[in-house]
Amino acid sequence: MKASPRPYHHGNLRQALLSAGERAIESAGVLHLSLRELSRELGVSHTSPRRHFADKQALLDALALHGYERLGAALARAARDHGQPFNVRLTKVARAFVSFAIQHPAMLGLMFEAKHRADAPRELLEAGENAFAHIFGVFTSGQATGAVVAGDPHRLALVAFAALQGLVTLSTNGKFKGASLNVLIGEVIERIILGLRPRD
Amino acid sequence: MKASPRPYHHGNLRQALLSAGERAIESAGVLHLSLRELSRELGVSHTSPRRHFADKQALLDALALHGYERLGAALARAARDHGQPFNVRLTKVARAFVSFAIQHPAMLGLMFEAKHRADAPRELLEAGENAFAHIFGVFTSGQATGAVVAGDPHRLALVAFAALQGLVTLSTNGKFKGASLNVLIGEVIERIILGLRPRD
DNA sequence: ACCTGAACACCGTTCAAGT
DNA sequence: ACCTGAACACCGTTCAAGT
Known about the structure:
By secondary structure, chain A is mainly α. Helices cover 68% and strands 0% of the residues of chain A.
């Protein structure tokens, strides 16, 4: 077992730690991440991570940063067609977000925690802002075409995003007995659209 | 400092561990909870918790159970006036939930994780169901009076609850620059009500 | 019944040292 | 520059033993 050779000692240990770290948190949870075990897997001494990450938290922050970059790219792709109507664009970004969350639940948790930390690196905060700016943009253009009520677009986006965030939290916690997630996403999005419609 | 005497060795060590444990997770996070440190605080040996909790996870589960009982009681209180219109009842339960979440953020996280665990004790799952049944009840009576669209009330309640859950997640992660949480709660509730209104 | 102390197998982190 | 080994101060958990 563990068929991979070891192309390390070259300077790709940093990348190897990130990959192995992500796999570890998705399969066993952030709580059980062990630098020593990671080192064992990669066939290096347990002190070598120190060269690339000051401590365990630094590795987690680097993982979260990478997560925000990937989420941002996915949201940008979903929102890129500015010619489409609000409902379509919102549906696309919402599904992109939910899809990311379902595929990388531990990563998403890590990303939120990292942003929340008092001493979060500036880089991380910026990556987060950049990722969510793509959702925000859909709302401002929705207001421009009259599909969304007037008001502070940041607040409206936040309210809608909260619904998605909650859906994801509930779903990764397996709290859907029979209901398919795909159906629920559609329902949540529909309610958001109705809730944000200008009152006739 | 640490002015409390020690009325332990009586059989209240179990309760003392729960209290100290809750205080510890709210102030330092679940990750940093240490049974040995808890024992030190309480002036007992680090093996004595074993008598009351099989392991660390058992203590966390007991804390989560207690949390669900308190949340359930708060939601029941908020929802008890069945004569009030849907909007009023929904607002009350929503504010009760958000209020609990703000006051006990680490506890709420623990509660969700505990329910999610594959080997979660039956007792815990039941306490969770009981707590959320009070929110569910508001939706079924909302449908009865025509304030809420027809459809599976479980799904509708889930959709609305997701929005609250997301608001709470976002708020405990401090992602509200200027906006007051109280204002945002009101906005979320309003959007939920509008989103669930029957289409005339 | 309830608590203790020694012991075991793990951690993260530091430091002097090797190539 | 990058990695190593010994060492330190912590964990959770087990077990034989004390009252």
